From TrEMBL:
InterPro entries listed in its UniProt record: FMN-bd (IPR007329)
UniProt-listed Gene3D superfamilies: 3.90.1010.20
Signal peptide: 1-20
Comp. bias regions, Acidic residues: 28-51
Protein name: FMN-binding protein
Length: 161
């Protein structure tokens, strides 16, 4: 009888400790969820004909906020009919930059094992190199940013035509 009593006491103590530890964990923001896969875009032959027909200037475009409250923004500079600069970021409702939020970047990198800042820099550089948003390679773990970047680049190119 004493063995069963001791057994129940040990179980009760174990369950109490397990619940106490679980209940005392610090609340954190949910980790950024991995981005859904992006389908390979179909190349449009008209894009090749339109190269070099861009109007010089600075073009700024933005998207409506996504389900997490981040809205993508892109500033693109065209000189000599070609894209020479591209700057992408995402801002929250307080106009705070996602790319300058060290905690967010750290959680993003831990969740996806991707250098978020390097991925965005790659997107910007590839747009300048290719002059075509459809040719920008997707970085796994930063596909949502890729989708926004490509959509914004297309909008900016429409304005520059």
């Amino acid at each position: 009888m004493k063995k069963f009593k001791l057994f129940y006491i040990v179980i009760a103590v174990f369950l109490t400790l397990a619940l106490a530890i679980t209940g005392c964990q610090q609340e954190t923001e949910p980790d950024p969820q991995p981005d859904p896969p992006v389908e390979d875009p179909v190349e449009d032959p008209q894009d090749e004909d339109e190269e070099g027909k861009l109007k010089d200037g600075e073009y700024s475009v933005e998207l409506d906020p996504d389900e997490r409250g981040w809205r993508g923004i892109l500033t693109m500079v065209v000189e000599g009919g070609e894209i020479t600069e591209a700057t992408f970021d995402e801002l929250n409702e307080d106009d705070e930059s996602k790319l300058q939020d060290e905690d967010y970047i750290k959680r993003w990198e831990e969740a996806s094992n991707v250098d978020a800042l390097a991925a965005i820099e790659d997107y910007q550089e590839e747009l300048i190199e290719t002059q075509n948003p459809e040719e920008i390679n997707v970085v796994s773990g930063a596909t949502s940013s890729h989708t926004k970047f490509v959509e914004l680049a297309k909008k900016a190119l429409e304005e520059a035509e």
